[in-house]
Amino acid sequence: MSAALSRGGRAWVPEYLLSIDPDLCIGCGRCFKVCGRNVMTLKGVNEDGEVVELDEDDDDDEIEKRVMAMNDEDACIGCGACARVCPTNCQTHAKAA
Q: Is residue 33 one of the residues assigned to a domain?
């Protein structure tokens, strides 16, 4: 992929969010708050370590912790804002192939 240009004409190569490691994520939501594109969503991790949807009607006793997970990866524009605010470095980013 070739570099895009910033408004000032400088070369810039986007790095897209590929994945979020649920073992490292603490579910703080900082990445979600800086992303205006709905790329991520909050999910739960059950006692078996599986990432599951959160349901408002379910009892949270089965949820061990909450984590951020991919929601719409195709909406990512590669700005890197989520990586800059993540306190645990749980995200994987890469340039487009």
A: yes
N-to-C CA span, the chain: 7
Per-residue pLDDT of the chain (97 residues; tens, 9 = 90+): 567 899 999 999 999 999 999 999 999 999 999 999 999 999 999 999 999 998 876 566 789 999 999 999 999 999 999 999 999 999 999 998 7
* Domain count along the chain: 1
pTM: 0.86
3-state secondary structure of 32: helix
Residue 25 lies in domain: 16-95
Domain membership of residue 51 (yes or no) is yes
Which DSSP letter does residue 48 get?
T
